[in-house]
Amino acid sequence: KTEIATNMLEIDSLQQKIQGMGLSDQDRAQIEKITGLRKKVMEIGGQSALLKVTGQPGELDALVEKQYHPAVLALQQAHQEFVTMQEVAYENDRKDFDGRTRVIVLMSALGVALTIVAILIGTGFLIRSIRRPLILANELAASIAKGDLSMQIDTSRRDEFGDLMTSLAAMSESLGRMVQQVRHNTDSIAIASSEIA
């Protein structure tokens, strides 16, 4: 009797904890079914205690056999149904979680791939934006070194390459003025030499 009362208190406590969790409507309906079956088992248990004291011989056995055992089996079956429902819900949640995990991994991989592609494209544009003006500046410097000071130099850029082109243009103009001055001085010397001669 004491053990049954202790077990009932533990079952009540466990059932209250379960009811406090986020249950579905189907879970709540099963808990209500279990509660009803437990009440029925307890009522039959109370009747059997009365029959034990006041009943006729055989009445207690008949009550236990025809009502108590089937009620206990029905309660056990309801508990098993609840457990099965939870196992199915767990399996469905696990499959859903696995599916979401796959989607998250796929989206992350796609995001990383897109990021890498964007970095590569950006790197290509950056290299081209550095390489083209550098090649142009190099060609310009080579032309100036060969003595060709007639090249048109674009100084419209507003970055370091624009500054480099401006410096090359200034150098070309300065060299051009020097060359003209040297020619002028050479012509002057030639005229003076011819006059002296």
Protein described:
The protein has 197 residues and is mainly alpha-helical. Helix content is 88%, strand content 0%. It contains 4 helices and no strands. The chain has helices at residues 2-20, 25-54, 59-146, 160-196. Helix 2 runs antiparallel to helix 3 (59-146) and helix 3 runs parallel beside helix 4. It is rod-shaped. 3% of the residues are buried. The model has no long low-confidence stretch (mean pLDDT 87).
Write the layout of secondary structure elements.
Elements: H1 2-20, H2 25-54, H3 59-146, H4 160-196
Helix pairs in contact: 2-3, 3-4
Compact description:
The protein is an all-alpha fold and 197 residues long.
Radius of gyration: 49 Å
Q: Give me the number of helical elements.
A: 4
Query: What do the pLDDT scores average to?
Result: 87
Biggest sheet overview: none
State the main characteristics.
4 helices; about 200 residues; mainly alpha
